[in-house]
Write a structure and sequence with these properties.
Low-confidence stretches: none
Shape: globular
Keywords: Coiled coil
InterPro entries: Transp_IS110-like_N (IPR002525), Transpos_IS110 (IPR047650), Transposase_20 (IPR003346)
Number of domains: 3
Radius of gyration: 25 Å
Largest sheet: 5 strands, mixed
Distance between the termini: 62 Å
Protein name: IS110 family transposase
Strand order of the largest sheet: 3-2-1-4-5
Organism: Noviherbaspirillum sedimenti
Strand content: 5-15%
GO molecular function: DNA binding; transposase activity
Number of helices: 13
Helix content: 55-70%
């Protein structure tokens, strides 16, 4: 009997395959090397292939799609309940095979190569920014050992380093040389990060979807291109709330006996996208008090009833729903009067 569903547990070099027929009977339990994987699937008739969404999953989903298979990605937390016993490759592949056949399973959109290339630039910029912050903290700590206190902010650090380089502040020669070398490295990282930002801004101008998203208050090129590249086809989400839940911006539930208990946000999904949305709404909240539109007044009233953090997260969730509507329906942003 033909194989209709396969669970594929991927790794760097070793891959586990578990296939079943239309009655759910196991037909394949096999370990493959990286070089043999595509050759193996090329010999199979088209079938449903489940893969956990992890490193390399989007690449393999695209390759299997080119061979005619229906490759679908799932979050690992949705696969775990179907694993019957201890964790190993064979049990993981069987659990994936079982999970992908569930009618109500939620799947992760498969990213295109172009989308992954954009996100690669985003991650490279994030790495440079984090290294720059680490270096600035290190420089500030070293200067503190010589009685030079650097308050928060890059502008203050630059002024202090300018004084050290011009001799207005004195340091031992060896310490001065070392700290100046670290500062030079920090400047190089900052320049490279700014170069990536210019490229991202140029890409945003070429993307119709990103340009429409940038009409939303607080959404710039970095946030817009990250959302567009990560989401892909927004129509895969049934509504805006499901999209907000995918971003981890909806409350956790612990309800029972007809009583609804809501906690903090679930924090599921992409941490970076959620962080971008929340940080951008913090800047919007600062100027919301001087505006008269309904959304700004709603955010101000919510801030008065709760606190700034709750209001910022709620506004980020509202923006996420607006973004879904704009991407799924191809509409422009309309400000509520």
């Amino acid at each position: 009997m033909a194989i209709v569903r396969i669970g594929l547990d991927i790794a760097k070099l070793v891959f586990q395959v578990h296939g079943v027929d239309e009655h759910g009977k196991t037909k394949i339990r096999k370990t493959l090397s990286r070089g043999d994987l595509l050759e193996f699937f090329a010999k199979l008739p088209p079938c449903l292939v489940g893969i956990e969404a992890c490193g390399g999953a989007h690449y393999w989903a695209r390759e299997l799609g080119r061979l005619g298979h229906d490759a679908r990605l799932m979050a690992s937390q949705f696969v775990i309940p179907y694993r019957k016993s201890g964790k190993n490759d064979a049990n993981d592949a069987e659990a994936i095979c079982e999970a992908v056949g569930r009618p109500n399973m939620r799947f992760v959109p498969v990213k295109s190569e172009e989308a992954q290339a954009i996100l690669t630039m985003h991650r490279a910029r994030d790495l440079l920014v984090s290294e720059r912050i680490a270096l600035s903290n290190q420089i500030g700590g070293l200067l503190g050992e010589f009685g030079i206190a650097v308050t928060r902010g890059m502008a203050r650090l630059r002024r202090v380093m300018m004084e050290i380089q011009t001799g207005a502040r004195t340091l031992p020669l060896l310490a001065k040389e070392t700290i100046c070398e670290l500062y030079e490295r920090m400047q190089q990282l900052e320049a490279k990060a700014q170069e990536y930002e210019r490229k991202i801004s140029a890409m945003a101008k070429q993307s119709e979807a990103a340009k429409r998203l940038m009409a939303i208050e607080g959404v710039g090129p970095i946030t817009a291109t990250a959302i567009v590249a990560s989401v892909g086809d927004a129509r895969l989400f049934r509504n805006g709330r499901e999209f907000a839940a995918w971003l981890g911006l909806t409350p956790r539930q612990h309800s029972s006996g007809g009583k609804s208990r809501l906690g903090g946000i679930s924090k599921r999904g992409d941490v970076r996208l959620r962080t971008l949305l929340i940080h951008r709404t913090r800047s919007v909240m600062r100027s919301a008090g001087g505006k008269s539109d309904r959304k700004s007044q709603w955010a101000v009233e919510l801030q008065k009833r709760s606190c700034s953090n709750v209001a910022a997260v709620a506004l980020a969730a509202k923006h996420a729903r607006i973004m879904w509507a704009m991407l799924a329906k191809g509409t422009a942003y309309r400000t509520a009067a």
